[in-house]
């Protein structure tokens, strides 16, 4: 009995039985208002103001892709370091990896941004979509918008 008590104390002292802390925050996005189940939804989360809304080749950026589904989907980023980030979404309905446009400028596919940042003549400014990550779990909703 004494040996069992000593083993239990040793295990507790070494941290056994306690969940390991994740290497950064977890950010979960509920993407609402998807009009169909065509293609995929791509998400880009970056802290690089000068490259927003793009992620490709951006150091420290997070990207995710899930199959589209009419209505609502969930996407999760893990291991997010503390800082300021903005998220851009694309409902890539034809899965070609890019945002298709009509007449050279009007988005043909759905899009969305953190904080539901307003869209005027192009994507919103980083400052309109930015949010803080400080080590906690974060859940947010982003509404997918369609122009056509």
TrEMBL record:
The protein's name: DUF2141 domain-containing protein
Signal peptide: 1-22
InterPro entries in the record: DUF2141
Keyword line: Signal
Domain of life: Bacteria
Lineage per the UniProt record: Bacteria, Pseudomonadati, Pseudomonadota, Alphaproteobacteria, Sphingomonadales
Matches recorded under Pfam families: DUF2141
Species assigned in the record: Qipengyuania vulgaris
Keyword Signal set for record: yes
């Amino acid at each position: 009995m004494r040996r069992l008590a000593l083993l239990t104390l040793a295990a507790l002292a070494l941290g056994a039985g306690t969940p390991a802390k994740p290497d950064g925050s977890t950010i979960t996005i509920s993407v609402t208002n998807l009009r169909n189940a065509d293609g995929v939804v791509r998400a880009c989360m970056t802290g690089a103001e000068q490259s927003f809304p793009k992620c490709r080749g951006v150091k420290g950026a997070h990207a995710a892709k899930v199959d589209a589904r009419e209505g609502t989907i969930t996407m999760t980023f893990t291991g997010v370091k503390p800082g300021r980030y903005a998220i851009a979404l694309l409902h890539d309905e034809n899965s070609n990896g890019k945002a298709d446009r009509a007449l050279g400028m009007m988005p043909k596919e759905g899009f969305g941004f953190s904080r539901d940042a307003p869209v005027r003549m192009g994507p919103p400014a980083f400052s309109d979509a930015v949010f803080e990550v400080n080590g906690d779990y974060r859940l947010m909703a982003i509404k997918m918008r369609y122009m056509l």
